[in-house]
Amino acid sequence: MDRVGVRELRQNLSVYLRRVKAGESLEVTEHGRLVAVLAPPAPAGNPIARLIAEGRARAAVGTIDDIPVPPGPPSYAGTKALMEDREGKE
After folding, report:
1. What is the pLDDT of residue 70?
2. Could you tell me if residue 67 is inside a domain?
């Protein structure tokens, strides 16, 4: 990543903006100290696709319909316990 001083950036802003539009990122310095990073915006669109592209998530290998339904009738014991706890019952 290239570095550019504030004064140089100000004097040649259009040149550096063209570079950023082309996909480059630039570190902006003031008196030799890093003060900002000028980078292209993150691509808009599907956040899941972005996470997959970044390697931070994996694509699904099936659909929700592929998940088997648990055997037996549904149990509401957990819900009942939470409701009793909220009401202060033991």
Report:
1. 84
2. no
Predicted TM-score (pTM) of this structure? 0.49
Between vectors from CA 47 to CA 45 and to CA 49, what angle results, nearest 5°?
85
CATH number, position 6: 3.40.1620.10
Contact 2, 26 (CB under 8 A): yes
**Whole-number Å distance between alpha carbons of 41 and 66:** 37
Q: What is the DSSP string of the chain?
A: -EEEEHHHHHHTHHHHHHHHHTT--EEEEETTEEEEEE-PPPPPS-HHHHHHHTTSS---SS-GGGSPPPSSS---HHHHHHHHHHHT--
- Any domain includes 84: no
Residue 73 lies in a domain: no
